[in-house]
Amino acid sequence: MSASPNHSGKATESYDVVVVGAGFAGMYMLHKLRGQGFSVRVYEQGDGVGGTWYWNRYPGARCDVESMQYSYSFSDELQQEWDWSERYAPQPEILKYANHVADRFNLRPDIQFSTRVERAAFNETTNLWSVTLSDGKTVTAKFVVLATGCLSNARMPEIRGLAGFKGKVYHTGHWPHETVDFTGQRVGVIGTGSSGIQSVPVIAEQASHLTVFQRTANFSIPAHNAVLTEEERQAFRAKYPEVRHFARVESRNGIYAEVPDRGALDDGDNERRSKYEARWNHGGLTFMSVYNNLALDKIANDTAADFVREKIAEIVADPETARLLQPNNHPIGTKRICIDTEYFSTFNRPNVTLVDIKSNPIEEITTNAVRIGVKDYEVDALVLATGFDAMTGSVAKIDISGRHGQTLNQKWAEGPRTYLGLMSEGFPNLFVITGPGSPSVLSNMMVSIEQHVDWITDCVTHMRERHLAAMEATKDAEDKWVAHVNEVADSTLYPQANSWYMGANVPGKPRIFMPYIGGVGPYRQICDDVAAKGYEGFVMTGAEQPRKVAAS
Ligand code: N01
Question: How far apart are CA 316 and CA 326, in angstroms?
Answer without folding.
Answer: 10
